[in-house]
Amino acid sequence: MAELTLPASIAGVEPVRSVRTPAHLDYQFTAGEATSRFLRGIAERRILGERCPVCEKVYVPPRGACPTDGVPTAEQVELPHEGTITSFCVVNVAFYGQAMEIPYVSALILLDRSDLPIMHLIQEVAADEVRVGMRVEAVWVPDDELAPTLESIRWFRPTGEADVAVDMPGEGEGTGLGSWPELSPGSGA
Amino acid sequence: MSDGAAADDVLRAPLVIEYPFRRTTGPVIGAFLTGLREQVLIGIRGADGRVIVPPVEYDPVTSEDLTELVEVGPAGEVTTWAWVTDPHPKHPLDRPFAWVLVRPDGADTAMLHALDAGSPEAVRTGMRVAPRWRAEREGAITDIECFVPEAGP
Does any CB of chain A come closer than 8 Å to the CB of residue B37? Predict the structure, then answer.
């Protein structure tokens, strides 16, 4: 860039180099009927999934219908508060609005007897000791702080049980990691 | 939801998403924002001698680097306007106002800002306006709270 010539009024002052451009989006979140049932259960320290009558998978949090079979998931299933880590991420980078001290672990947890993992925090264990297959249990807030929000579960912590084997997502259905269809040469993909 | 009873069963909550972005301005837009902080309007001279405000980095016709920043206004003339009857919470003024294009004195282009004029009857193309500066300025377009009709002679 060529040298700029400035008018006298701003020639001697500290130049502005950056500008704040915050994005602020105000939404009203509507949980829907199935997720409202789930959240009301959480407020009573209960984890409620819903079972598909066709494939018998248990979804948690439920959305009210099975995405595979397209039918309502009418049967409510109370789930245990223990599960297995199927995937996790160690957060090492500080960011605006963070609630946890870094490093911390965010994980997908497959609750026992359910078929869809939920995402939550892992605490009470060093971040570098968290692993896929680790058994964990929910740690709840005190009774007088229970509310219809997943924050009623403060985090999950290791149970101390032995690790269990974890299937890769989609394995056996031809859609998951490790089972990509092989592409023939010249297929253009 | 098919009826009111079901609607009452569904949970709702505010969900606010916020990104605290800060972006760098480069020296030309930076000079414009520096001017706002110092209560002056800054334009830039184009290859044909016309003064463009807010300043641009490259000539809109020839694409060459532009370098001659000049002071304009800050008072000027309304070239077109639109009245806002019902301001949005994020609008610059909390009362009815006009969006205006203002051509500052000495400039050949107009810039967008708000005009606090009271009523649409008080606004017309060609009217004289001047900026109302904020007491605390940081180098942002909002350092001008709005434009106001210029005081009569």
Answer: yes
